[in-house]
Specification:
- This is Oxidoreductase.
- This protein has helices spanning 10-13, 36-49, 65-74, 78-92, 152-157, 194-206, 233-242, 268-274, 287-294, 318-331; strands at residues 4-5, 18-30, 98-104, 116-121, 124-129, 139-144, 164-171, 183-189, 210-211, 214-215, 218-224, 246-252, 310-317, 338-343.
- The chain is an alpha/beta fold.
- The chain has 3 domains: 4-32 and 96-171, Elongation Factor Tu (Ef-tu), domain 3; 36-92, no CATH class; 183-343, Rossmann fold.
- It is globular and about 65 Å long.
- The mean pLDDT is 91.
Amino acid sequence: MPVREHASRHDRIAELPLVTESATVVEREAMDRDRTEEVRRAVDHWFEREGLADRYESVTDYDDWGTLVEELRADGYSGFARRCATLLERFERPHPMLVRVALEPDDTFEYLAGQYVGLRYCGESRAYSLASSPTRDRVEICVRRVPGGDLSPRLCRDLAVGDEVTMRGPRGELVLDEPSDRDLVFMATGTGVAPLKGMIDYVFDTGADEVDGERRDVWLFLGSAWEDDLPYREAFRAYGRERENFHFVPCLSRESYLSEWAGETDYVQHAFVKHVDESAVSAPLGRELERWLDEAPASGVEARIDPGSAEVYACGINVMVNSLVDAAESVGVPGRYIEAEGFG
């Protein structure tokens, strides 16, 4: 199935209907953490573990980590050099990189869970998916800082409570189908989860997770490099504690470098396939996906997905979303029950 494009170009945003010239920022909160000290401890730990602590200058006092990485490569420690390069990248990144922003429009604003709006601040415009549900009082977005970006660094660094932004929209067709007896599977990476967050809130706020007295399983597969790069992670974990039919599966590719992370580390589409009921898959998947269908999940979730009885919603960068859609179709989710939106 084709993946719809999320409008992000400035000229296309200007075409959206004006909602308000003065939506007020009522809350702004960083969702990631400053982990520089954790990185220092982790690098020292890995040097000790590899038996290299005495061979190289103390990393905590090292002024040029880039040179250190090159020295490791030159000395034949290419795998360890990659790990150090990853930790160096994390060490040097600015904070915050991920923020949530709650807005209060000066007029009534109607939208559907999953849609997006265009925001204008300090003369720059960008499209942002709404992370809120129309059942809630506030309109909310989440912003990932893009290095060199025109707007996201300002929203992460400069935006303050009381500031006003121009808001246009809403727009977007990534919206929920009418409630049915089908289970719900949401898949995203990073801030691609924003529209899905609004949809999940809406499902639980309206009781749409129960149809004709039967509970629907609600799944969320969410990928990022680091644990603190998962937007709204505590809200999703709270749903997991409070609702037996909600299954949150974080997929963290790099978190084990800094912590004792023992959950999923694979791509979102692969984690999804690992949680599919193998007995419900009839068509051959090919070597790539067959491997993941046979692999036991690391999430600790015992429930499994019947692809023939599921509807899937996916959002994120185009390449990732296309892979998610391909995986869902391959295991047997009917195309008419897959909704996807990509950007970038």
